[in-house]
Amino acid sequence: MKEIPFYTTSAILSPFLLWQGLRIRKKIPRLPEATGPDFGEIPGKKPIRLLVIGESTVAGVGISDYKSSLTGQIASVLSRKTGRKIFWQAIGESGITVKEAVQKFGSRLPQKSPDLIVIALGANDVLKLNTQKKWSSELEELIGICKNKYPKVSIFIAGVPPVGIFPSLPWLLRSILGWKARLLDQASSYISLRLQNVFHVPMRKIGSIPSEGIFCSDGFHPSSEGCALWGEEIVDSIQTVLI
């Protein structure tokens, strides 16, 4: 998918998009991150160590605790579907881009190797109109940091959030940013084809159903129900590797 038409269209519409963006920035409420421990365990047989790294969805923005956030939901679904014991940990920061994740997350990785890493980034790169080339380079760098520390780990790149369905955004801005999200997600899928033991998990379920109930009160971040749906999709992909 070529980016030239996207940037041409964005340039033509830029004055209006900038105006809409400034209005929305003032309008969307700032929700707190999840409280409580950002790690935990679920009883079961033969343990799996799960690490999820990423942006506000991993930090649990708009959600009461980490158990109800994306990481906790992935762990819960994985436990239910496999009967395995799950040790889970979240490393997240609201507003972070993939470039900032490269700069900050390496020093926060746990010493004990996880079996699975889920990378959930992209919304902030969409908002900053990051190019496919830059996104790919920085995402590969982040994957390389993880692989250097944990050579045998399986890495799952979660789909770039479908910004085109975020109810808080006006139609035109939603359309342009949704287009950009699809471009970055396509780049993620190409990375997974090139790298060993790296898998792309496109976000099909959330992007194809009505938005009612799957977003927090800000109309921007996924609710616990939205995270549960997303977690199901990620676990479906994980199970194909665990078998």
TrEMBL record:
PANTHER family: SGNH HYDROLASE-TYPE ESTERASE DOMAIN-CONTAINING PROTEIN, THIOESTERASE 1/PROTEASE 1/LYSOPHOSPHOLIPASE L1
Keyword Hydrolase part of the UniProt annotation: yes
GO MF annotation: an example: phosphatidylcholine lysophospholipase activity
A Pfam short name: Lipase_GDSL_2
Protein name, entry field: SGNH/GDSL hydrolase family protein
Domain SGNH hydrolase-type esterase residue range list: 52-228
Any coiled-coil regions, as ranges: none
InterPro entries (alphabetical): Ester_Hydrolysis_Enzymes (IPR051532), SGNH_hydro (IPR013830), SGNH_hydro_sf (IPR036514)
Keywords carried by this UniProt record: Hydrolase
